[in-house]
Amino acid sequence: MQFRDRKQAGRELAERLRTLQEKGALPHAVVLALPRGGVAVAREVAHALDAPLDVLVVRKIGAPFQEELGVGAIAGDDPPLFDERALDRLGLSEAALAETVDREREEVRRRERRYRRGRPPVDLRGRTVIVVDDGLATGATARAALRRVRREAPEQVVLAVPVCSPEAVELLRDEADEVICLHRPEQFMAVGLWYENFDQLTDDEVLDALHGSHTLPG
Hints:
Radius of gyration: 17 Å
Order of helices and strands: HEHEEEEHHEHEHEH
Helix content: 25-40%
Shape: globular
Structural class: alpha/beta
Mean pLDDT: 92
Strand order of the largest sheet: 2-1-6-7-8
Number of helices: 7
Largest sheet: 5 strands, parallel
Strand content: 15-25%
């Protein structure tokens, strides 16, 4: 099974969430997108639920010798959240990653400034916060995002994604009050394999989704 693009995935996810909303299970909802790809999905969800849309910027912490190999993640000004097993396996220490953490934290701040354009973050206190991404492979960045949200004293936290690995769901069950995933293929491999169109979004396209009226590609 493949989604045509993120827009279709967002609409299907929105249908599931709207059913819960109609039952009163999602009071005072706000939607937080994990940029960049999660924004295209989250916009459909926010529109369907008539809920505010904001971003929650999270950055992967990559291994020094292979940046694509994630060993942790960072959200906002929170301390980095490391995968201790990955560090042990690779012979890395948290101290050895200090420079990488500083660089990724600066990128988090840059994107937050650019995406919000001076607008303050949505107040999450006492609200149902729906964290949305386009898919979950390891769940590492989503875990950092959920812990960041918990610090803001929401009423409940829901993680909602179109597709995810079974391992990611297990990792995140204790981090969110509810995890909603439309499809959980046993042979997961990578998020992009479950989309016909998985082009990367640009910062400008994210800004259009958050502030403009332009059509956002899937």
